[in-house]
Amino acid sequence: MPSMTLPRRPALATAITAAALLSACGKDPKPAAPAVPEVAILTMATTNVALNIALPGRTAPFLLAEVRARVDGIVQERRFTEGADVRKGEPLYLIDPAPYRAAVKSAEAELQRAQATLASNVSQLNRNRVLVKENAVSKQEFETAEAAQLEAAADVAAAKAALDVARINLGYTTVTAPIAGRSSVSAVTQGAYVQGSAATLMTTIQQIDPMYVDLQQSSSEGLALRREIAAGRVRMEGTDAAKVSLQLEDGSTYTRSGTLAFSGVTVDQATGSVTLRARFPNPDKLLLPGMFVRASVSQGVRQGVMRVPATAVTRTPQGTATVMIVGQDNKVALRTVRTGALVDGFWLVDDGLKAGERVIVSGVQKLRPGTVVKVAAAPAAPAAAPAATAPAAATAARQE
């Protein structure tokens, strides 16, 4: 019997060991704790933001004069170079003056005749004045002589006026520049017949230094700005509020700044816009009439506003603006806000946030309200740009 039980002990120990190993392998490992998401935040603080609005426009000359014929005749000379600058009063054309010189001489002769008649009548009147006292002539003869003298004086006045007209018409044969500026293409050539009655266009002169820029602003934007000013949220700071900068057709920036000359007071019924006119110095003649430009018009400074990066703002299907904020317990909450203008990549927040609240600016894609997050070092809010631009389309996109 002993010889039969000894071989069982090693087999039993082996079975127990294998069972223990199988039990250890089948036990589930302890799950690892989920990672806490890390987000970057921006702590809200109020600041002042310069509001500029970008508007399209076209350049227009400061002065524009159409040079037209004022007498009839044949053009004998053109005395200027097309496209050149001309001075005020500089001769531009010569219309055949011969008929008008003859008219002046005829008017001079008529004046001399009228003056001679007047002198004769004055002498006759003086003689009759003495004779009527001596009853040498009748009172009727004296009155007739007096009327003749008055009529002769009127003839002299009419002759002088006719001579003045003749001299003026002779002067019109030399066509001069009414303003100083740059001449355009001549509309008539030597030998052409022009008419004063039809006011034949001969050329055009434009003064382009300074230069006007006519801009169009929607009436809704102007209304919103006036409301901001009335509420004290926007202040017009002296001459700085009237500054205008210009971007040319090729994308370059015009080196000289302009000033706002006036703002229209009537809304165009066809376009719903108001005309703004800015004035720019143009000594280098870089700006030409009719150029398409974009102007940035300073419209004051928004006081005590909070700014949120555009990337931190999301919108619901209904268009409501929302942001994610981090509470004191580091839990995420969804906050509805009301945004104003988009200025230099930042939405101006009109309502929904308070100073000191922490807004998530990155890492919001997979977050849900109530999620606990790890907050990165909060960056300071960037300083407001001194000349931030608020495009017209963004200014209009105000969420109520």
Q: Quick summary of this structure?
A:
One of its GO terms (cellular component) is plasma membrane. By secondary structure, the chain is of the alpha+beta class.
Descriptive account of the structure:
Belongs to the membrane fusion protein (MFP) (TC 8.A.1) family. This protein is of the alpha+beta class. It has three domains: 47-60 and 208-396, Elongation Factor Tu (Ef-tu), domain 3 (Beta Barrel), CATH 2.40.30.170; 70-93 and 175-199, OB fold (Dihydrolipoamide Acetyltransferase, E2P); 97-172, Helix Hairpins (Orthogonal Bundle). It has helices spanning 2-5, 8-25, 98-133, 139-172, 219-230, 392-396, and strands at 38-43, 47-68, 73-78, 85-86, 91-95, 174-176, 181-183, 193-194, 201-218, 234-235, 243-247, 258-263, 273-280, 292-309, 314-315, 321-326, 332-343, 346-351, 358-362, 374-375, 389-391. The strands form two sheets. The protein has a six-stranded antiparallel beta barrel. Helix 3 packs antiparallel against helix 4. The chain is elongated and about 140 Å long. The protein starts with a helix and ends with a helix. 24% of the residues are buried.
